[in-house]
Amino acid sequence: ITLLVFVSPLAYSQIGGESTYEFLNLTNSARMAALGGNQIAIHDSTDLNVSYNNPSLLMPGMKNMLALNYVNYFAGTKYGYAAYSFGTPLLGNFAIGMHYINYGNFIEALPNGVKTGANFNAAEYALNMIWSNEYKFKYNKKDSLWATSNDSARVLSHRRLAYGVNLKPLFSSFESYQSLGIAADLGLSYFSRSGLTVTSLVLRNIGTQITTYYDGADREKIPFDIQFGVSQKLQHAPIRFAATMQHLQKWDLAKAEEDKTGSTIVYKEDNFTKKFLRHLVLGVELLPSPNFTIRGGYNYQMRQELGMKEVMSTVGFSWGFGFKISRFQFNYGSTRFHLAGSSNIISVALNLNQDLKRKTNFKN
Prior knowledge:
This protein is mostly beta strands. The chain has a single domain, classed as Porin (Beta Barrel), CATH 2.40.160. 7% of the residues lie in helices and 50% in strands. It is globular, with a radius of gyration of 21 Å.
């Protein structure tokens, strides 16, 4: 299907284009965009969006939260993510969301290039059904970031383990070519006794293509990914560091480069350090006040694949900020993909709890 050629440039790195439903790898929120594109160990019960990257981070304190994200991407492409959380003490924490991408309208043409005058649309959708629970946890009303008079939050000083699942039915449509699929994310997070360190493991996009785009076609792979992440908040300084290793199922992410010397072609491969860095995504959060956060990130793989060797500039770097006013949160993230431009993401969130305490913050 020639339309799929249009989709593949949206996924950076050498692993892009190897599978269908590549939109599942897009960054869903402004916070993640600012932190390098992907972090799976950010513990923050005020941010429902973190559960998209790691379902085990869906916490009781996120109950009755609404999150909306929108990206005006390149070449007329737009995508976004919306989610709402709920839960019960006995069954765990639940959230439901919709992730979509719209590639825009296209003019239909015959194989010989003659335009028919008709238009068609291309879009993909993923329903997110997230569930999480915890092993050995306690509650203390004083520690809740979104505490209410009838609800309480976990004691952060208690060592615990959280686990979660995100089930994702998939639908893809390119003109008259359509496909159905199913995927699931499995997440596991360990919280230190102090609550300042989080270690997470995520298996993303475990699944298969159920129906192909046309009869007789072979089922295509979906973008399976193994990720490991750690975050550390300093005890006596308002700073949180985060690091995530992604694509661990494939060690060498770079294609060997050709180096022509006369009539001889030599293929140069990355050394161990560069191969390691291609998996690593770094992020940092500065928390100068309870209601304001400044963020920065670096993605080495993105810089190597999308930067120009002559002028690398700030390709691969990202930044953003967030603030909160009562029930409302606003986050902005900007990622420098190429010298030609950046991608900007806006995220808003609303806490729908009736008796929300005013004193809340980003620091959990």
